[in-house]
Amino acid sequence: MKEFIRIKRTNYSNIVAFFCNFLLIYIVYALCRLEYVLENWHTFAPTIFQNYWIDIVFGSWRFDTSAILYTNLLYILFMLFPIHAKENDTWQKVCRWLFVIVNSLCVAANIIDSVYFQYTGRRTTTSVFSEFSNEGNMLNIMGAELLRHWYLVLFAAMLFFMLYAFYTFPHGKLTLTGKKQLTRYYALHTVSFLAFVPLTIFGMRGGATTAVRPITISNANQYVNRPAEAAVILNTPFAMLRTIGKKAFTNPQYFPKEELDNIYSPLHNASAGTQETADSLGTKTFNALHGHNVVVLIVESFGREYIGKYNETLDGGHYKGYTPFIDSLYDKCISFDYTFCNGRKSIDGMPSILSSIPMFIEPFFLTPASMNKVSGLAGELKNEGYYSAFFHGAENGSMGFQAFARATGFDDYFGRTEYDNDKRFDGNADFDGTWAIWDEPFLQFYATKMSEMKEPFVTAVFTASSHHPYVVPDKYKATFKEEGNNVIHKCIRYTDYSLRKFFETASRQPWFKNTLFVITSDHTNLSDHEEYQTDLGVYGSPILIYDPSGTLPAGRRHCIAQQIDIMPTVLHCLGYSKPYVAFGKNLMQTKDEDTWAVNYNNGIYQYVKGNYILQFDGQTTKAVYDIKNDWLMTRNLKDKVKEQTEMERELKAIIQSYMERMADDSLTAQSE
Predict the structure, then answer these.
(1) 640 phi and psi, to 5 degrees?
(2) Which residues pair with 612 in a beta bridge?
(3) Rounded to an integer, what distance in angstroms lies between the CA atom of residue 171 and that of residue 168?
(4) How many angstroms separate the CA atoms of 297 and 314, rounded?
(5) So where are the chain's domains?
(6) Per residue in 140-163, pLDDT tens?
(7) Tell me, which fold does domain 260-671 have in CATH?
(8) How far, in Å, CA of 470 to CA of 491, rounded?
(9) What is the pTM of this model?
């Protein structure tokens, strides 16, 4: 009986030791973070602990958990895998050294990076290896820095010693003397191992819900007020792991700097608008809406294919679409013949629409450049005294929107948490069960909150209901039924109805006529028509500019517009006079024939201008199509049209400028 009790107790010792050692890693990471802050106190001291230290603690824990689990995967396997052969001194000593070596390397990375931060203003990513690949004096530089920061060497040594000295071995020796004891051992360790597998996956991803994408370095922005402070939330092992395999932005060097800027530059000198005698609409729009509020509606998957007014010739002229409200609003708006999104995912839409940053190579959120200083509608208009807020009915932090909103200057973020806390609405009862609050109630919440804001304000909302799994609220199932060939159609009708209700509420508010509305989608989705299934058609998103005051002349422009044009166009209409960086163009002062659009499609850059689309792989032109006469892109006119040479030259300039500015952290006018 005594032996049985002893065996039962020591069966747990390996698991207890494992969790004690994980706690030790968290403590060491916390000490590294404290050292990081103290080493760069002049940067973090002004604001870091003012009002949101709880956010810092939670955010840090989230990123530390991900890094610790990634770097200690082998240790986890060695300690928890259910095999009794590991219950001996040799195995446990191997585990100890594996633990100490791996985590000592992580400690060293964190501490070294605390010094490097003063040169970069952000956590080091894998791009550091290419950045210094041609430097032959790195050992000398590192040696000099070690001498300068001798105290950090001692601190690192102390942490290495902690990892070794406070490592917990399983208590006692486990003796399995019979089949019953062996069965009990394997049952306990198998359950423990299987239980830890999903916890490990959730920890690596940064969350367990369907709304959570694997966290990336840009998510750190949601816990801080300044982009530089994101370095406190992050840890260097995580920053490096998350950028492994992510292609760094490299300068293709098509042109020397002087020639590049003459061909294309994203630096906008907005005050130049005051010098124009007339703009592309034939009327002066610069400063026309000075002091107006701005409302940007980013509607999930709301491709232009679903809007009847955009498709008068579709289906032989019989196509009606699924958006009766947007169709009714269309003639009151400024619209454009050809309108495109600049990416294919939700995480591409927000940077394109609100910061005029297209998606090239990788989604901006997922690249090291996401930690750059970024311009945006909210940040620029803050210079003019605007209050700003971003709304998204999903779980706070979903898709990285909260982080990006804060990084680009939005004052506040209203998500599912804020909706649930507002007693005027039904809270969790309005949750769609998968992603977010249903569009109708959340857009009413949006309108209500704007009525409580001090003007002028700039806000944006990202809807969610027209999304997989393509369902509508139970009370509307009899109203919005399956129709057409796509399950999304009923959701589009529901979202269109929700927009109608939103505008009905908004139109009764005192701020309505003093507000400029922009309606677009994040990307396109399920398609019925071959016109929207081509390499270009899949980017067909609506762009509508609605001015209830009637100051801007409504009508359809025979030109090309894209998401990245929204920011410079809106700033122009408001009379914004400061320089800023935006990769798009101001549609109000660009002649129809000079408008263009660009996107990146599976390794191919697409450039649309005039009657043509040019496809370019970064080195050579692969195809040219006449979209006016061959919208389905069936006849490759490469080397057969005179416009090809100039289009290729312009596209190269856009690509080079983008890559240079991403790599050099030059996405704001202040970086010039």
Answers:
(1) -120, -5
(2) 609, 626
(3) 8
(4) 26
(5) 2-241, 260-671
(6) 666 667 788 899 999 999 999 999
(7) Alkaline Phosphatase, subunit A (3.40.720)
(8) 6
(9) 0.81
